[in-house]
Amino acid sequence: MTQSRTVRVGVVGAGANTRARHLPGLLALEDVEVVAVCNRTANSSRRVAAEFQIPRVHGDWRDLVTSADVDAVVIGTWPNMHRELTIAALEAGKHVLCEARMAMNSSEARDMLEASRRNPHLIAQLVPSPLSFTVDATIQRMVASSDLGSILAVDIAFRTGHFLDLTTPLDWRKDKSLSGNNVIALGIWYETLMRWIGRASSVTAMSFTGPEAENESPSMRLPDHLEVLAHMENGALARIQMSDVSGLDPANMATIYGADATLQFRDNTLHFGKKGDHSLYELEVPVSERSSWRVEEEFIAAIRDNEPFTLTDFETGVAYMEFTDAVWRSIESGCSVQIPSNDQLNN
Question: What local confidence, expressed as pLDDT, does residue 2 receive?
């Protein structure tokens, strides 16, 4: 534990989220120093170091994670490097905060989980899905109470509003060699769904993938549109749509249909209506139930043993990767696919 001294952090992978969230969040904390950075190129590493006044640049991430003056490693790379980096950092005795989309697939995610279990004295945290911080507690309370009645169905829609575009270079989020089985925001939304109503027991999925662009190798491109039907462990049926070909029709919402009422999350607000109402109305979220981004603060507090982090542990990451893999198997087989239960995942 690192309770009474400065926590020294090294960063491997300083992409957009790391520069927008993790570095400012860490540097705002008392007695936290970011002492080293390693990005994809020497030039980009130097630019990040200059922007955030980081004293040391590494050309090889292995040197950073084994440095004696690094207590914790923030991993902001693409998913293709998460497994190797996480295991190396944990085995070197470093606490780990790893970016979301835990790994390329569930096998890699389980390897990361096992490494964390071999080092239980170290903090192993994933960057959580931030979509619903302000409403999670309210939704959880309403689902657990009698406000909605029995949960019958859930409908999730994530549409970018884009038209199919094969003229621009393939983004890493669409490149299977870099993102693995992670399609658009599937795992991020499933993590959110798990917070609200629990896990799925089986999935049936179909997808559409546009033609490959001129410089793409075969099977490199991830699906551009995905439809998933999931049986939830609580008996509800969930429909999840992920679309990057929804031209002029953006949407980012989730609706929970209960026997007695409907609850919808859209535009970062809640909307509610019960039997007898003519439409949904905006529901005020109590101030006491609103949360916000505390990822870096929770990470450092957990290292100091001041408070446990609440989001997101490696077990949850494995669960969303198991779901993601099941979706892939369903697409490939054309069949419904069972998902391992929590007990099976822990055995």
Answer: 47
